[in-house]
Design goal:
Elements lengths: L11 E5 L4 H12 L3 E6 L20 H8 L3 E6 L5 H11 L7 E4 L14 H28 L4 E6 L12 H21 L4 E8 L10 H8 L17 H8 L10 E4 L6
Parallel strand pairs: 1-2, 1-4, 2-3, 4-5, 5-6, 6-7
C-alpha cells in the first residue's frame, strides 16, 4: 500500500503526555514532519520499554529523539495537565516559538477498577487529568490562536470507550465521553475563529497506560478471525493526528476519528 507524507515545517505543536505511548509516537511524527514539538508531561523519561511498541529508542526522552533523529525541534516542559497554571505556562511558553499552531490534548491516566469499587479519589484524579486537562488545554490553546489571529487545530485523544462500555472502565469511560462532547462543543463555538477541533478514538493500543499492558496486549488482543486481529501500536495513530491537524482536514471539525482495528464494528 502507498504512504502519505506530512509537512509541518515552521509550525509549533504541543503534545501533552508525549513522554510515552501514543503521545510519544504522535510527537515524534510531528517532528518527522518538521515541526517544533513541545512535550508537556509530568515526567521526561519514557515509561514504555517494550521495543516492539515504542516509537524510536525506548529509553531516550521524546524531545531528544525529535532533536537528533528528525527534521524537527524538540522541547520538554514539565506539565501536570490537571493544573490550570501549568497548562497556561506551556501555552505562554509557546509564544516564544511563534505561538501554538496545533494542540494535541493527549495526556491521560487509567486504573482498572470495577464500577462498585471506584473510589472518589480515583474518580476525581481521572477526571482532573483526562477531562479537565483536555478542556482547559483546548480553551487556552484556542485563546492563543485567536489572540494571534492565526487560527489553528486542536486534536484530542478520546477512546472507543467514549461510546462503548467495557469492564473496569466506567470511571475512565466517563472522562472520554466528556472529551468527545468537548470536541464537538468547542468545534461549534470556535469555528468562526478559524480553530478546528477534532478527536482520535484509539482502540486497544499497547502502551503503559496501566502497568504491564504494553506487553500483555499482544496476548490478550487479536489472534482470531474477527477484528481487531492484533493489538494496536502507538505508531498506528500518528497519521490520524497529523491528518486532523493538517490543511487536508480544513473542512473537518467536531469529528472523532476511530482508529481501533475494527473493534467497534
Amino acid at each position: 500500500m502507498g504512504t502519505i507524507s506530512a509537512d509541518f515545517s515552521g509550525e509549533t505543536v504541543i503534545v501533552t503526555g508525549a513522554s510515552s505511548g501514543i503521545g510519544r509516537a504522535v510527537a515524534i511524527g510531528f517532528g518527522e514532519a518538521g515541526a517544533t514539538v513541545i512535550n508537556a508531561d509530568v515526567r521526561v523519561d519514557p515509561k514504555d520499554t517494550n521495543a516492539e511498541t515504542t516509537a524510536a529508542d525506548a529509553e531516550t526522552p521524546t524531545h531528544e529523539v525529535i532533536d537528533v533523529e528528525t527534521d524537527g525541534r524538540g522541547e520538554f516542559v514539565e506539565t501536570d495537565v490537571a493544573e490550570y497554571d501549568d497548562l497556561a505556562a506551556v501555552i505562554e511558553g509557546a509564544r516564544d516559538l511563534g505561538g501554538v499552531d496545533v494542540m494535541v490534548n493527549n495526556a491521560g491516566t487509567h486504573v482498572s477498577r470495577e464500577f462498585l469499587d471506584v473510589s472518589p479519589e480515583e474518580y476525581d484524579r481521572l477526571h482532573a487529568v483526562n477531562a479537565r486537562g483536555a478542556f482547559f488545554g483546548t480553551q487556552l490553546a484556542a485563546r492563543d490562536m485567536i489572540d494571534r489571529g492565526a487560527g489553528g487545530a486542536v486534536v484530542n485523544t478520546a477512546s472507543t470507550t467514549s461510546e462503548r462500555a467495557e469492564w473496569e472502565h466506567s470511571h475512565y469511560a466517563t472522562t472520554k465521553g466528556a472529551v468527545q462532547m468537548l470536541t464537538r462543543s468547542a468545534a461549534l463555538e470556535l469555528a468562526e475563529h478559524g480553530v478546528r477541533v477534532n478527536a482520535v478514538a484509539p482502540g486497544p493500543i499497547a502502551t503503559e497506560i496501566t502497568d504491564g499492558w504494553s506487553e500483555r496486549a499482544a496476548e490478550e488482543v487479536g489472534g482470531g478471525r474477527e477484528p481487531p486481529t492484533r493489538a494496536g501500536r502507538p505508531a498506528d495513530l500518528t497519521d490520524a493526528y497529523r491528518y486532523l491537524a493538517s490543511e487536508g482536514a480544513d473542512y473537518v471539525t467536531g469529528e472523532t476519528l476511530w482508529v481501533d482495528g475494527g473493534s467497534s464494528i
